[in-house]
Specification:
Elements (H helix, E strand, L loop, with lengths): L3 E2 L8 H4 L2 H19 L22 H6 L12 E3 L2 E2 L4 E2 L2 E4 L12 E2 L2 E5 L16 H5 L5 E4 L18 H16 L9 E6 L1 H12 L6 E5 L19 H8 L5 H5 L2 H6 L3 H4 L4 E7 L5 H13 L4 E6 L5 H18 L4 E2 H6 L1
Parallel strand pairs: 1-12, 7-8, 7-9, 9-10, 10-11, 11-12
Antiparallel strand pairs: 2-5, 3-4, 5-8, 6-13
Amino acid sequence: MASLNHRGHEGTNPQAERNPMKHTRSLFFLLLLTLLAAAGAHVQNRAPSVAQTPAAPSQTPAQGAANGGKTGEAKPRYETVQFESKLVGAALPYNVVLPADYNRGPSKHKRYPVIYLLHGLKGSAGDWVSDRAHLADYAARYPFIVVVPEGHDAWYTDSATVPNEKYESYLIQELIPDVDRRFRTIPSREARAVAGLSMGGYGSLKFGLKYPDLFAFAASMSGALAAPSWPPDAPTPDWARPSIARAYGAMGTATRRDNDIFRIVREMPPERVARLPYFYLDCGTEDGLITNSRDFSALLIEKKIPHEFRELPGTHSWPYWDRQVREILRLAAQKLSPAQDAQAASRR
């Protein structure tokens, strides 16, 4: 199945795409510009606030009316689960946006598909439910459960340097089972998706590649897709460099190799391709990380892995991600199994 690239590949150099080392220097300089522009607020115009710091939940007029007009005291449109991870040895609360009809009438017997939505570097589980995004409004149109986990700055990876920072194992072995126990999910691959921005975009595609039996759809916005190949002395900002070294260790470690999604795809046997989820990538044309997505899409084309890649106007910023998450929800509605009546499902 041919992939869809809304920009096309005109002007690219196939030999360069097959030689990732040739792109390394230019990638680092582009990355440096991107991260410096994104540092602090991850917003356009380079506002001086802290990057991706959770803000107060947004509120609609209907919420204010339901609260007697006291707009500052509205109940959040999501709930927070206080979860203690045994693998990480720490509290890792996660936020859940439930379907609008989750507790209403006949829908109390429904089971729903789940989307895991991952935050970026210097972000948190609060980002997607803060006032910089409108996830609850967008998700209300779909019969999904949306889960926003806490990943800290660990690159959704089991750390090569800190034994208890097992953030990949946490998500796969603890978080997904906990969500399936607490909520009326459809606990199957066909009803589960993973998506994310920047660091979370990398994590989403990695989970889709490494755990194809768990996910039917994996999506990346502005993905930092080549992070495991960035050396410790790369010209990245001081606030970004430590997380890469902490997660992956020195160059040549097994952790870097095992979490390099370019290597995973290059070495993937053809018989495994049919088991993969459907991949979606997008990136802003003014985003210094766009080379990551272009190169990864080219590799997927080479390996004949179905996917869609879009280049769109935008930067590495929250206005871009808030816009594009709507498209991810729309695509997930096409790729995932629909909500189903739990009683009917149990009789089948």
